[in-house]
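[recover] target loaded
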């Protein structure tokens, strides 16, 4: 009985090791042809190492990078200042104010985001009824001061058609 239990344990251990190795082998043999994200394969073979900053990794559309406010095709702000994004914001980092014109139409007056508090949960983007927010594939997102992480509607608004918009590199290398 002891012998059977011993052999069973050994067999299970060997099975788990082989199983794990098979997963690694399968990935190793097919890593260049598997499409991790829609459209990825079309952009060429996957490279894990790139010569940064000369080369940059392609970031998938589902990336939850810092978000932007959108202008529609006619150049108007899509956001009407309803404040839902501020209500659902996990990091409590959005400050919205709206204004009403003579016709009773609401528009955005103030939209401040403190990205130092943002946890990139994406709730603001998902809950926006106007679809006025979009994530960007920005990943060069380093700052020396917290104040530099405060953005407002002027620094965040982009045209809706600028699909691949990324925030310009904000990393400032201090002069030596
Ligand atoms: S991503 Fe999350 S934490 Fe960041 S601003 Fe949106 S709701 Fe707030
Ligand atoms: S971004 Fe969307 S949810 Fe936030 S205030 Fe504007 S319209 Fe409302």
């Amino acid at each position: 009985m002891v012998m059977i239990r011993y052999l069973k344990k050994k067999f299970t251990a060997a099975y788990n090791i082989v199983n794990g190795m098979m997963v690694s082998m399968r990935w190793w043999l097919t890593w260049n042809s598997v499409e991790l994200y829609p459209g990825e394969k079309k952009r060429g073979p996957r490279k894990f190492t790139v010569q940064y900053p000369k080369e940059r990794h392609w970031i998938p559309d589902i990336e939850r990078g810092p978000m932007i406010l959108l202008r529609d095709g006619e150049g108007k702000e899509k956001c009407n200042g309803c404040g839902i994004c501020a209500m659902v914001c996990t990091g409590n980092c959005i400050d919205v104010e709206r204004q009403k014109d003579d016709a009773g139409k609401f528009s955005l007056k103030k939209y401040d985001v403190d990205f130092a508090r943002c946890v990139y949960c994406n709730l603001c983007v998902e809950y926006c009824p106007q679809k006025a927010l979009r994530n960007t594939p920005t990943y060069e997102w380093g700052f020396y001061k917290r104040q530099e992480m405060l953005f407002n509607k002027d620094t965040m608004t982009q045209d809706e058609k600028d699909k691949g918009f990324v925030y310009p590199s904000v990393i400032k290398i201090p002069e030596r």
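[recover] notes: Residues 2-43 form one domain.
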